[in-house]
Amino acid sequence: MSHSGPIFLVEDDEDDQLLITQALREIGITNRVLFFQDGIQVIEYLGSSHEQPFLIICDINLPLMNGIEIRNYIENSPLLKERAVPFLFFTTSDHSKTVQEAFKTTVQGYFVKSSNYPKLKEDLSIILKYWQLCLLPGFMR
């Protein structure tokens, strides 16, 4: 895991993309943010690029391939799994069944997107600070 690598934001809602990006900048995150509108786009990019993402922040409800299907694909691909990229769900869905399904995929976190911008920003700040401190396989300080 490279702390300076890009943040992959898998989010089909352009307003949410804008709000999340703005919040990341306001809390001082300088990592490049790459946007993916659906699961197919992020899977294809991960498979063809050697760029090591810092973090994947993924919505659950996406066209073509939902967030849980994306996570399962990564977990079932030895090459992608070995990259040990932290994968978090950041979604509006707070249904208990969805949360249970998400954690069956060994996701590293499940967070509900707040509709309140200051709360959204605070949540992202906490999430990013945690992952900036975390060490994963293949990363040395």
From TrEMBL:
Domain Response regulatory, first and last residues per copy: 6-128
Protein name: Response regulator
Residues in the signal sequence: none
GO terms for biological process, alphabetical: phosphorelay signal transduction system
InterPro entries: CheY-like_superfamily, Sig_transdc_resp-reg_receiver, TCS_response_regulator
Positions where 4-aspartylphosphate occurs in the chain: 59
UniProt superkingdom: Bacteria
Alphabetical UniProt keywords: Phosphoprotein
Species for this entry: Dyadobacter flavalbus
